[in-house]
Amino acid sequence: MAASGPTSFASSRQSQRTRMQTPLNLCCGLLLAIAAAASAQTSVALTQSPSPAREQAPLDQIGAASSMNGAFAEGPTRVAPGAFRLESPRRRANQERPAPEAEPQADQGESPAPTRAEPEPNDTKLTEFQRFVLEASGQRPSLHGYDLFSARRYPPLTNVPVPVDYVIGPGDELLVQIWGAVDGELRPVVDRNGQIFLPRVGTFRVAGTRAADLESVLRQRVARVYKNFELSATLGALRSMQIFVVGQARRPGSYTVSSLSTLLSALFEVGGPAITGSLRGIQLRRNGTLVSTLDLYRFIADGDKTGDARLLPGDVIVIPPAGPRIALLGSTDQPGIYELASAQEPLSRVLAYAGNLRAMTSLHKVQLERVDSAERLRPRTIEERALDAAGLETPLRDGDIVTLFKIKPQFANAVTLRGNVAAPLRHAYRPEMRISDLIPEREALIQQDYFIRKNMLVQFESGTNISLDRAAGDVKNLLSEINWDYAVVERLDAAALRTVLLPFNLGRAVLARDPEHNLELKPGDVVTVFGVKDIPVPREKATRLVRVSGEVNVAGVYQIGPNETLRSALQRAGGLTPQAYLFGTVFTRESTRAMQRQSLNDAVLRLESTLARAANRSAANMATTNDNGSAQRLLAAQEQNRQTQLARLRNLEPSGRIALELVPSIDSIDKMPDLPLEDGDRIHVPVASGFVYTVGAVLNSNALLWRPGRTVNQYLLAAGLEPVADADNAFVFRADGSIVHHRDESWLSRSFESMELAQGDTIIVPEKLDLETPWSAFVRGLKDWTLVLSNFGLTAAAIHTLGR
After folding, report:
1. I need a labelling partner for 5 at 20 to 30 A (CA). Which of 22, 449, 503, 766 fits?
2. Is 574 left (phi over 0), alpha (psi -120 to 50) or beta?
3. Is the pLDDT of residue 648 over 60?
């Protein structure tokens, strides 16, 4: 590279000649190259301070030798720093000619960047030992350490500080800056002879000089010619060099790497060993001599780079085949397959490769599966060791499979408390420990969720959305009530290997400290405390709430006793107001709501089945008609009507109302049924509405003014029936929740139409499911008979004749 300018000139001259050159032509070419080098060296521009004894010439006309002589002959007079630049002829030649595309010049500290070889396809395969471990254990352990080279690319050593022990060699570029009596900047490149050229100073050898000594060497050389100057020297673009990678590498071959590369960095650049290669004994050979051996396990575990030597051109990296391998499985952070440094290594050293033992690993047992290939019939054996001092020194050899086990999850002195308690957790067992020691006070049975829900009652609260329903829900659900009558101790019977339940009365154990129920505990016991939602308690012990609203003097939520009834609840609410309409009292119950929903679902299923059979019969009857188009349209209309009715039934939401079967003239609480109450019951006493309602297939579905003595028939006449109304299936939903159907009338009682209605009663008239009118049925029947007669070849005249 030192003669890049002349070489380019000579090559351009020689490219004009033919391949068959005579020795004379070769000599001429050599002379031309020498002349070009001499002329290039005289074109260096150097700045100097003006001299009174000599007229300053233009910069491009000053020769290197004369200008430097004048500088030191006339004294240290200076001009403004940086006014002139000293350029190397080689750098100028490199700037004038285009750089070759194949080998671009790198920046300071850079070399041609080798790219890491992509992993070979067989890197994803399993080794023979991996397949053996997979068959033996069902696990597929990875090879320890090989993921160090799993990245797809590793950058080469570029733009890094040059180490002080770096040895300068051919191809390195130097950055030399001179200031003082003379200012200049040079970028000489070490030629293949290890020399550089400085103007006026001449050619001298720098190859073999350490980077730390470069500045002093240059200073000594320049000081022979110049005085009163300062000098700084660093390295620019570094040389590249060729090395060889052989053996069990991912991609063996020849590589061009940076001159800063070491054995370890080169391994990263070339992709590292293949899965069949060793990580324990990678060799660096130079001129047939072993220079160093690198153990990557030490580097991975401790960062130890012992054996990592700097590379020189022509070095050979040898990756030998992998040595003995063992598998480490079970309770370890790094299960995998490990390579031994020698034929045998102690178990403790292999565990150190895997990060040593964890606290969860049992020290009492380790299983060792060993292979003896010399044994013909039974080549495999199993041995057991303890992880004590002797067991850790167990020698491992090629093919061994070591399995570590976890410690047992059993607690030696734990008693567990769970369920409806403040702190469900494990407690330390003490001798003669009892239930009262585990639950010393009532507060230990209040769950923490109670305080969280209690605190949230006033968070993000506007104060306007409080209702009786919400108040009742908060009172009921704020605290998870304890079942004081029943709790249980679960104990393991070690002799029979079964769980034994020991029930006890929680109230007597905790509150009364009754020795019969305050059981003595043992290590491993589990004490469970239940709530009333987990195991329902009798009615007299449960907290039951009812809501009373409407026309009562004190509406609200009341906690009822064991024998409280509807009458007593109304009386506790302060009795009735003068506007109360007892016949319209609405009494709802949650259990009744659930039963109504189930009954409604069953009724919808039965109705679906009935309508499906009716549709099939209609389709069979209409299949014999000639007018198939009309029949299909009629069937489609009927099916649509059926689906609409079923959809309405499915969307009905049961209210859970219980019919009280009152008389319309009831006016006293004492005449109300003495119905026992349940938790969640709701009692609402309305005011008299003064209306009767008609809904369904009626023309006027508005509320009709109630008149004493008016009957169902009169209200239906006032409301009017639609053509699709099914009057035979009409019914009345009375204000007390009872229902009177049209078909309930008998010859001993008054008819349905003549029944007198009370305030709040509702008449419901359903629609017919079959939309076919009598006239359409007659026309369809007439068509069917005409078809029958025509099929038999009979006419009306023939029938008349036969009739006579």
Report:
1. 22
2. left
3. yes
- On whether the CB atoms of residues 544 and 523 are closer than 8 A, the answer is no
- CA distances, 508 to each of 340, 424, 518, 532 (Å): 67, 21, 7, 17
Per-residue pLDDT tens over the stretch 588-615:
998 888 888 888 888 888 878 887 777 7
DSSP three-state, residue 696: strand
- The pLDDT value recorded for residue 535 is 85
Helix/strand/coil percentages in the chain, nearest 5 = 30, 25, 45
Strands 289-294 vs 545-550: parallel, antiparallel or unpaired: unpaired
Helix 4-14 crosses helix 89-96 at what angle (to 10 degrees)? Answer: 50
Q: Residue 346: beta bridge partners?
A: 395
Distances from the Cα of 403 to the Cαs of 275, 369, 640, in angstroms?
23, 8, 71
Report the alpha-carbon distance of residue 550 to residue 557 in Å, rounded: 12
CB atoms within 10 A of CB 561: 11
Q: Give the helix ranges, DSSP H, for 114-162.
A: 128-137
Q: Where is pLDDT greater, at 66 or 488?
A: 488
pLDDT for 523 beyond 80: yes
- Looking at the DSSP assignment, which residues form a beta bridge with residue 731? 741, 764
Task: Give the DSSP letter of residue 615.
Answer: H
Amino acid 778: pLDDT: 41
């006027």: which residue's tokens? Answer: 700
The token pair that represents 246 in the structure block:
């052989």
Q: What is the pLDDT of residues 108-140, one digit of tens each?
A: 333 334 444 444 444 458 899 999 999 999 999
Alpha helices in 459-589 (DSSP H): 468-477, 506-510, 566-572
Distance, in Å, from the CA atom of 201 to the CA atom of 65, rounded to the nearest integer, reads 9
The HSE-up count of residue 712 (CA atoms within 13 Å, CB side) is 23
Region 91-105: what's the mean pLDDT? 39
Q: Is the pLDDT confidence value at 89 over 70?
A: no
Could you tell me where the beta strands, DSSP code E, fall in 439-532?
482-493, 498-504, 526-531
Q: Which pLDDT does position 614 carry in this prediction?
A: 75
For residues 478 and 472, what is the distance between their CA atoms, to the nearest angstrom?
10
Q: 138: helix, coil or strand? A: coil
- Sort strands 762-765 and 691-696 into parallel, antiparallel or unpaired: parallel
As given in the structure block, the two tokens for residue 494 are 């070690």
Alpha-carbon torsion 541, 543, 549, 555, what sign?
Answer: positive
- Edge-to-edge strand order for the sheet containing 682-685? 556-559, 545-550, 682-685, 586-588
What is the spatial distance between Cα 476 and Cα 461, in angstroms, rounded to a whole number?
19
464-485, pLDDT tens digit by residue? 566 656 666 666 666 678 889 9
Cβ partners under 8 Å of residue 527, min gap 6:
415, 416, 417, 418, 419, 435, 438, 439, 487, 488, 489, 490, 521
| C-alpha to C-alpha distances, 593 to 596, 653, 755, nearest whole angstrom | 5, 9, 29
Where is mean pLDDT largest: 2-11, 337-346, 628-637? 337-346
Residues 6+ apart with CB under 8 A from 470: none
Q: What is the pLDDT of residues 338-369, one digit of tens each?
A: 999 999 999 999 999 998 888 899 999 999 99
